[in-house]
């Protein structure tokens, strides 16, 4: 029994001061969020501004296609393109291209150039075979808003996209390569605005029409199936920087198989081409 039960008749809260205290406290606690909710959310004066939140995954990205002009009658015409993202060089692919005298377009990053001087020397020693183009400075997706592509943080702003493109070109020129005319960003995905920006910097943006090795992650037999699906006018993308992956074995075997079929291999600089999403026109 409440010690103050004798005041019950005079106490509208049930005759117990403890009841009065608890009920009053409960009312005040319930009222506090309402009072604060009515206030506008803003930083106190003098506090630094909070950085804007990055978009989650509602960014519209495009993955452009690219074809070279078809040969029409006779042997099909196919363009082999290889990304040299970072790391080392796959000798299985490089030796096949050189030994079989197969022309190809190689997209190099500044990161790859720093660690592969010997492979670069091979490319430069065969200007009749290899066209070297820009794959960026640090292998960052050329996307001008904050997001991630395949788990890789994108450039995130127009200024960072410009640096990725320019930094890649500067490294190429410093390494003795001529000014590149094509750019292919990491992941080969872009926003339409980033494509317009890169085009404004004087580059064509290199898409593709056949994914040869899915980032060098496919087993050799699957790579061979991808290459075998290529038709007249196709542009194949593969990677030449993963010497320990099984995909490289499939790429080398596929090049030989296409040559045996009489395919005409061309570089992007050798033949008219057309890409969608405003990448070339």
Tally of separate domains? 2
C-alpha Rg (nearest Å):
31 Å
Mean pLDDT: 86
**Shape estimate:** globular
The SSE string, one letter per element, is HEEHEHHEEEHEHEEHEHEE
- The CATH homologous superfamily of the largest domain corresponds to Glycoside hydrolase/deacetylase
Outline the biggest β-sheet.
6 strands, parallel
Instruction: Tell me the helix content.
Output: 25-40%
Helix count from the secondary structure assignment: 8
* Helix and strand composition category: alpha/beta
Number of strands: 12
Low-confidence stretches: 1-53
The CATH class of the largest domain, by name, is Alpha Beta
Q: Architecture of the largest domain in CATH? A: Alpha-Beta Barrel
- CATH topology annotation of the largest domain: TIM Barrel
């Amino acid at each position: 029994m409440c010690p103050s039960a004798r005041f019950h008749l005079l106490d509208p809260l049930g005759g117990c001061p403890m009841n009065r205290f608890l009920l009053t406290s409960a009312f005040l606690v319930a009222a506090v969020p309402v009072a604060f909710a009515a206030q506008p959310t803003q930083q106190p004066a003098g506090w630094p501004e909070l950085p804007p939140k990055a978009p989650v995954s509602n960014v519209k990205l495009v993955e452009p296609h690219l074809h070279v002009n078809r040969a029409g009658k006779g042997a099909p015409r196919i363009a082999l393109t290889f990304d040299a993202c970072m790391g080392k060089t796959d000798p299985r692919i490089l030796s096949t291209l050189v030994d079989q005298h197969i022309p190809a377009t190689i997209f190099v990053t500044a990161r790859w150039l720093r660690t592969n001087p010997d492979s670069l020397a091979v490319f430069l020693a065969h200007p009749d075979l290899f066209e070297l183009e820009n794959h960026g400075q640090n292998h960052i997706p050329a996307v001008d808003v904050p997001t991630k592509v395949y788990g890789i943080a994108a450039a995130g702003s127009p200024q960072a996209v410009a640096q990725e493109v320019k930094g890649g070109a500067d490294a190429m020129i410093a390494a003795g390569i001529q000014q590149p005319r094509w750019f292919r960003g990491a992941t080969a995905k872009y926003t339409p605005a980033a494509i317009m920006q890169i085009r404004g910097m004087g580059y064509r943006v290199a898409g593709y029409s056949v994914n040869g090795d899915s980032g060098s992650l496919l087993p050799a037999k699957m790579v061979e199936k991808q290459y075998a699906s290529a038709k007249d006018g196709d542009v194949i993308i593969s990677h030449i920087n993963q010497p320990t992956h099984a995909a490289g074995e499939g790429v080398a075997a596929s090049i030989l198989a296409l040559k045996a079929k009489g395919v005409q291999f061309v570089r992007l600089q050798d033949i008219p081409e057309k890409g969608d999403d405003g990448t070339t026109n």
